[in-house]
Amino acid sequence: MKNCDLIIHGASQLLTCASNGKPKRGLQMQDVGLIEDGAVAVSDGKILAAGKTDDILREYESENFFDARGKTVAPGFVECHTHIVFAGNRLGEFELKIKGADYLEILRAGGGILSTVRQTRAASLSELVEQSRRRLDKMLALGVTTCEVKTGYGLDTETELKMLEAILALDESHSVDLIPTFLPAHAVPSADFEAEGLSKEEAAERYTQIVCDEMLPAAAKIKERNEKFKDCFFVDVFCEKGAFNLEQSRKVLETAKWLGFKLKAHVDEFTNLGGARMAIELGAVSIDHLDAISDEEINLLADSETVGVVTPTVNFNFGSKEFADARKLIDRGCAVAISTDYNPGSAPCPSLPNAMAIACRYQKLLPGEAFNATSINAAFAAGIGERAGSLEAGKQADITIFDTPDFREIAYEFGGNPVETVFKNGKVIYGKK
Ligand code: NIG
Ligand code: FE
Q: Cβ(339) to ligand 1 under 6 A?
């Protein structure tokens, strides 16, 4: 018998989401590695083994048992795309949208992302950290153990770096691990260039230049001081009409790649500008949204290592009946992840279970596909697939206990919270001990 720190045993269902070191694609996405009457042994914050309760109890002993009878035991969720560091809210815009205003029109008129920019510039670092901490707490209560977070509401060097500092401070002080993404090319701060008499197009060119010459090199210095994010410090760009065109987006990502960042890109949220192809060709770790992706680009994605991230909460938030065709993506062999895109404008939603519920209903994913899309595939989309996202020997013991004997209920019920207990590195960080 080997001694270990913790044994979680008797789970009605244990989902390993084991994937042999790669994101799941195509038919593999249906396989959650389900073990009935499952158990997991943990030591030093890592998974030692996952299997049948009888087998685990034959091999391991511990002073610390967690009885998971009647429950589902699964990897903690990885949230691979959020904008949770921001100040204030967009409640006025919520009402405008109900009355029929369009998201990109609001942005063109200086609202939307730009309204959050004004609120974020005015906030101090500690205000920003404390407001964001509450959002992270909500996500933890909903089963998230790692969360990617983007900058993008500063749009000037000082505030973008303040946002990055806020992300790093939150990572230090919160039990959920954060993955930092620098997104200075999130919107064009045209008003900042009005005094110089620049048109919106000229402002976009000038701002892209500042991003590449000044902001990315400054963020690269912060990256170099933070060794722990070696594999997962990202730069992202919003390639969209009214934000950054294809050439500007390419320039940002090429500069970021040269500086040693991993790449992500918001593409095809509303308009296909060719961003998916460009980002895949540059080796992006993920491309996100994909509502307007073409069939040809879907084939490119399927043949690449890039993960396709869909954000069905955005479409739901817009009251839209149209969604990214995640069913087609999976059927063509792409590796698909699901994210909430938690942000104040297009998706004020902390709940991955709700994102799964929407994906199942509107994008026709099976609950198993949705679960892999928020665990192992999301971990690969966040650059940490090697160490998180599944219950495999050697990985972080990031484990969520769901208060249901059948995991399908996580997506079947919606609007509630199926999470009972969350373990991070083998320690309870939320719920019942
Ligand atoms: O992923 N599309 C750009 N960025 C976010 C929205 C941010 C906002 O509206 O504040 C998104 O949808
Ligand atoms: Fe986003």
A: no
* Ligand 1 neighbourhood includes 269 CB (under 6 angstroms): yes
- For residue 121, pLDDT over 80 is answered with yes
Q: Which residue type occupies 231?
A: D
Note if the pTM is more than 0.90: yes
| Ligand 1 pocket residue status of 343, Cβ below 6 Å | yes
Q: 167, 131 in Cβ contact below 8 A?
A: no
Atom nearest to 345 CA in ligand 1: 9
Give the nearest ligand 1 atom to 90 CA: 10
Could you give the CA distance from residue 160 to residue 211 in angstroms, rounded to a whole number? 10
Chain segment 11-43, per-residue pLDDT in tens: 999 999 999 899 999 999 999 999 999 999 999
Whole-number Å distance between alpha carbons of 300 and 323 = 20
| CB of residue 346 inside a 6 A radius of ligand 1 | yes
- pLDDT at 433 (0 to 100): 75
Average pLDDT over residues 263-285: 98
